[in-house]
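To the wet lab folks,

You asked to see what we're planning to order before we commit. Fair enough. Below is the target structure as tokens, and below that is the sequence we designed to fit it. If anything looks off to you, flag it before the synthesis order goes out.
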């Protein structure tokens, strides 16, 4: 069975935090839209639109963690892990689209050279974005912790999505304070523009990571190197290994390699070593699936350049 059970503790924890994010952002969207239209602040309204995409993103993440937890079936023999990678790509795309919207709104205000912000209602705006920043900071911190623990790209993307909302809210809050002390209403649009550029950078990074999983890019170099170290630690039991291939599918890792044994090695001995290698790899990477191809060594010892070979060492 390649994926965790839909009702295991990790899956329940992921679904719970995704559900909390949906409920929280629904409340924050209503609050910020109301205050945004009341004060006439393009930054607050843009922040509210950003939070609205958080609802969509959290809903996608909720669906993804439910679907990716389903075990392998006849149609998805390698499990459903890529649903999380696909979810991460969709959420990252939403982040970029939100940033483009913010740039458009802020640029329009700057080109007009005027702002609809009511300076007498700045206090309401500060309260709204302050509440949003605190709520999303707490939820995104918890979500990121669960994402790292469960290796969930969907939750990690959603956590980053919430963090960009925090950045937006903090920026808007700082902008409102500056407007209060300087009286320069166009700072509202300038703050929104700066935040949008930061959000785009985050979105592009998430797009790259999600595409890497969807396109079966190998595991990060430090993980591949750790796999090699584990294989080399057992080099006294075989001649050589080659053909190492790795990839990710959501929280799952797939590791494949060939192990060469001496021609007279017993199948039972080779199988025991393969089992031992698999166990050690799963200790290091708990949600990995290991495929070991065992083959005899057909090289002539005089011509062989394999330094790991136990026969050559003797």
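Sequence we intend to order:
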């Amino acid at each position: 069975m390649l994926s965790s059970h839909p009702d295991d503790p990790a899956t329940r924890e992921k679904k719970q935090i995704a559900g909390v994010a949906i409920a929280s952002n629904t409340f924050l969207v209503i609050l910020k839209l109301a205050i945004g239209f009341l004060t006439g602040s393009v930054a607050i309204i843009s922040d509210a639109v950003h939070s609205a995409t958080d609802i969509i993103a959290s809903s996608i993440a909720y669906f993804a963690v439910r679907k990716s937890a389903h075990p392998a079936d006849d149609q998805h023999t390698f499990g459903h892990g890529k649903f999380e990678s696909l979810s991460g790509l969709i959420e990252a795309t939403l982040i970029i689209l939100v940033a483009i919207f913010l740039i458009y709104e802020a640029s329009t205000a700057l080109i007009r050279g005027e702002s609809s912000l009511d300076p007498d209602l700045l206090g309401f705006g500060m309260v709204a974005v302050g509440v949003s920043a605190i709520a999303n900071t707490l939820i995104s911190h918890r979500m990121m912790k669960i994402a790292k623990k469960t290796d969930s790209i969907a939750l990690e993307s959603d956590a980053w999505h919430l963090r960009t909302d925090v950045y937006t809210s903090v920026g808007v809050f700082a902008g409102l304070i500056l407007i209060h002390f300087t009286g320069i209403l166009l700072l509202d649009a300038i703050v929104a523009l700066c935040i949008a550029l930061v959000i785009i950078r985050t979105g592009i990074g998430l797009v790259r990571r999600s595409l890497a999983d969807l396109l079966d890019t190998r595991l990060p170099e430090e993980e591949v190197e750790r796999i090699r170290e584990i294989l080399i630690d057992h080099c006294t039991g075989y001649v050589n290994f080659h053909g190492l291939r790795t990839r990710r599918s959501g929280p799952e890792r797939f590791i494949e390699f060939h192990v060469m044994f001496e021609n007279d090695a017993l199948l039972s001995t080779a199988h025991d070593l393969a089992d031992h290698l698999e166990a050690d790899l799963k200790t290091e990477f708990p949600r990995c699936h290991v495929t070991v191809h065992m083959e005899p060594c057909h090289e002539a010892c005089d011509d062989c350049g394999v330094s790991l070979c136990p026969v050559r060492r003797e």
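Structural context that might help your review: The domain at 9-214 is CATH 1.20.1510.10 (Alpha-lytic protease prodomain-like). Residues 9-39 form the longest helix (31 residues).

Thanks,
Computational group
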